[in-house]
Fold each of these.
Amino acid sequence: MAVFDFNSGKLRDFVPVELRSLPLDVRLECGVFNKKSASADEKDDYSLLCEDQTITQTLLDRLGRTLFPETKVHIDRQYVIGSLFAHGHFLGFSQQEVLSIRNGESFWIDTSSRAEISPAAPVAVAAPKPEPEPAEKPEPKAALKTAKTYSEIVKEYEDTKVIVDQLIKDVAKEGKVDKEQGTAIAEDIQQQINSADTTLIFQTMNRVRNEDEYLLTHSLNVAFLNGLIGKLMKLSPTKQFELVEVGMLHDVGKLKIDPAILNKPGKLTKEEFDEIKKHPALSLEVLLKSGIRNQSVLEGVVQHHEKVNGTGYPKNLDAHEICEFARITAISDIYDAMVAKRVYKEACSPFVILNEFGKGGYSELDIKYVNIFIECMIEELKGKEVIMSDGREATVLLVRPRQLLYPIVEIEGKAITTDEELYCVNIKVS
Ligand SMILES: [Fe+2]
């Protein structure tokens, strides 16, 4: 296959086959990136890269098939993007063909566009090789990770909801939780999270919910969300378990607040809002009364409304004073509120939620954790089967960091960039 060499301005042979089996040490050069004249988007893309730095990438073709896994790419001084050389062989792709060069992120090479370059005068640099067999399309992650069906996941979720409902009723009656029961529920949730496909659990929480059960559903969802974020961040099982506990119990203090204020439909007065603001401390009281002494859990609960911009409550903590669990719980809290708001009016796909986070505007959240969450979800969504707005089924090839709402999908063998006309309605469930 002939490709255009931006260095020499000539066509050259593309030699992917033998390179696939080699440990690649790739030099990336050509196409000077001028830091001064770069657009904001470019600066954003390149901000993670330093001169003379080697980064690891996975190169995909347009259909999302891996061409070169874990490729080491060296960024030369002054040069950022352009042609790839490996062991003296030219790989070659143009700036237009490269979607992203963020460190560690997969990017794809639009091999289809090469076919349009007429090989009128190819310059061979390697002996002609037979065309490579197309790589196997990656199995959908769901199939690799678990055999649990969506309806089984929903059933487990609903069963857990019944037990959490009892736990909340106990708090309302006795002002404390049964510590052993709380532990058992958190372990059960953790087990569900780790034995099922992540995106299907997100899907489970994105269903229509009963408005009368706000505290119950919210507590359960934040428990799941905290655990899922812990899983995506590859936190230790202990931390993941503690995060689930924080999520499950963070709002139980609301049971001690006048329901008339809690459920007031209109705007709250300052006095009423001051009452609401007491709930993190009231949750802490419940935990202490229940004999829970785990400092990380207690801190996560009492700080879950503190904000990294210093405007949170109850203590207006500065960013550095807020614990990791509270920062993560704040993300789960907003995620669940976002879903609850949207779920009544439109399909709540993970792309919609991710896009909300990606747009920013949450100065109260720790951007580092938000970005980790987005990056992990992008990775999770790759290879997922989705239902499109025209009813067809598709497979997610790539979720682009700056176009979270509109992933690139494969429909009937063709790679298609989704948009407001043809978009992903939701993940396909069995
Ligand atoms: Fe809260």
Amino acid sequence: MALTYPLTNEAIFTQMVEWRRHFHRYPELSFQEVETPKYIAALLKDLGLDVREQVGGRGVVATLQGAGEGPTIAFRADFDALPIQEENNVAYASENPGVMHACGHDGHAAALLGTAHLLTEMKEELNGKVVFIFQHAEELTPGGAIAMVEDGCLDGVDVIFGAHVSSDLELGLYNVRSGAIMAAADAFSVEIQGKGGHGAKPHTTIDPITAGTSLVNDLQRIVSRRVDPIDQAVVSVCKFQSGNAFNVIPDTVSVAGTVRTFNKETRTQIERDIERIVSGIELTGDVTCSLTYTKGYPTVVNHEKETTIVKEVMKDKVGEAAVIERPPMMGAEDFAYYLENVPGTFIHVGAMTDDPDTQYPHHHPRFNFDERALGNIGTLFVSLAENYLK
Ligand SMILES: [Zn+2]
Ligand SMILES: [Zn+2]
């Protein structure tokens, strides 16, 4: 695969890199973004765009009116960082202790700013509107997307696209797939209340540990026995806490885990199954259980028509071999909320090369990516705007 970035505007590309490094140097946590949205809004105002700030909390939305009438196309970039201490030794490393852009959202914001510049230069040739959605808080549920949608960021929008850099996809490649591509992610926790006592006199206690281990085992039957084998789902118990002495039966057990699904019905069914299993444990273990089931982001479902358009446009632009289709992922993304409201698609853009520094997984303290991916996101967005508005 040739390591090229097709974006031909060298000056804008250089600026994208500068913006990205600025965001990287000053990362802000989800729902605590102050300077990042201010910086973005100022640049968008300089372009003469119609800018709305504090959309759904901390989001920024800018609108570009083309010369003629036509449809409205939206692009979304997120801009929040993660509670991670950066371990990269780069000149633009994070200056905020314990906070790091370790998912590439710094790049998303920079690439969308570059796209806004490129499309503004072309506005006389565009028929319709472009809406640039800069979203806060993607990394933390309930996320910024749902609040921005409620605050009208999609009003009048006909179609929406989003992109994510990917450190496990080669630079130059675009992963474009129709249907469910990222999972719905829910969380559950169960507090089991028994009655503690002496380890030598179990009959005088209500043992929450045996009840808890039964619960963990029973939960394994959901995916293996209740979910259609053709469908995909995960139920993982990731926390089991109890007790602190070898001869004391404790009072309580705390169990928690995650549920990942692609199918809406499966998601609802698993939630009911967990409720049913927990009630069963109360009966068989003589314990009292309190279950909390928290719904996270829904499944990211790419719309077929728009996905096909992206494939055609990009095959034409960067060649057949650069547009690939990978299996769905169990990770989650609140871009799902936009796609529940308007048609569109979410694209993974390759950002990894032979350089080991570009190969760390997302959310790793050494995560970084090849910045030519910014140019590739710009190419993707500008090509789509041309397709819809020219
Ligand atoms: Zn992330
Ligand atoms: Zn991300």
